[in-house]
Design brief:
The structure is a single chain. It contains 5 helices and 4 strands, in the order βαβαααβαβ. It is of the alpha+beta class and about 180 residues long. The protein folds into 2 domains: about 5-50 and about 130-179, no CATH class; about 55-120, no CATH class. It has a 4-stranded antiparallel beta sheet, with helices on one face. It is elongated.
């Protein structure tokens, strides 16, 4: 049997305003490994949690540029180098004729990078998360708001962090274990 270790502290709040204020207070207190779990997007919560912008957009741009370069390189090689073929007096590599294939490959690679990049950045697939052990986490998809502070946070102390969240007005604060 494996020993369990502490995942963190999870606190339940009853409104979007309450979790927003709690998130601002938590990051102002110096906590950095903080996340919010809400039934709908809460305006400004990313700024309150001091989460930076996603890197997915840059990965998608790189995938699109790779698609452009791959399509142009492939068409240049096949038309101008490998099998030079003159059609209607046009040069073997006429770039305007390559635009449709270039566009399609750009979209294909950008969309593939978007899907698989999202999986990698979100560390998916993950079939179980320690937060599922919270007694009322099932209400996150209905009407409750949860704030979690991971034990990996440098400022984390199980009892101190729990008391801090209770002081912010959290209804149900639990220290969760990770098997």
């Amino acid at each position: 049997m494996s020993a369990s270790k502490t995942f963190g502290v999870v606190a339940e709040f009853d409104s979007a305003a309450a979790i927003y204020k709690a998130a601002k207070a938590t990051t102002a207190e110096g906590y950095t490994r903080v996340d919010a779990h809400t039934p709908f997007p809460v305006h400004g919560i990313d700024d309150a949690l001091r989460h930076g912008p996603s890197h997915l957009g840059w990965l998608v741009v790189c995938g699109g540029i790779a698609g452009i370069l791959l399509a142009q390189g492939m068409q240049w090689w096949t038309n101008a180098v490998d099998y030079e073929f003159w059609v209607s007096g046009k040069t073997p590599y006429a770039w305007p004729a390559t635009i449709p294939i270039t566009f399609e490959l750009m979209v294909l690679l950008a969309s593939l990078v978007a899907v698989f990049g999202m999986f990698v950045l979100n560390r998916l697939p993950r079939f179980h998360h320690p937060i599922f052990k919270h007694s009322s986490i099932h209400r996150v998809t209905d009407d409750r708001f949860f704030l979690s502070i991971e034990a990996k946070d440098p400022k984390f102390d199980a009892h101190g962090t729990k008391a801090f969240l209770e002081g912010l007005g959290a209804a149900n604060v639990e220290v969760l274990e990770d098997d």
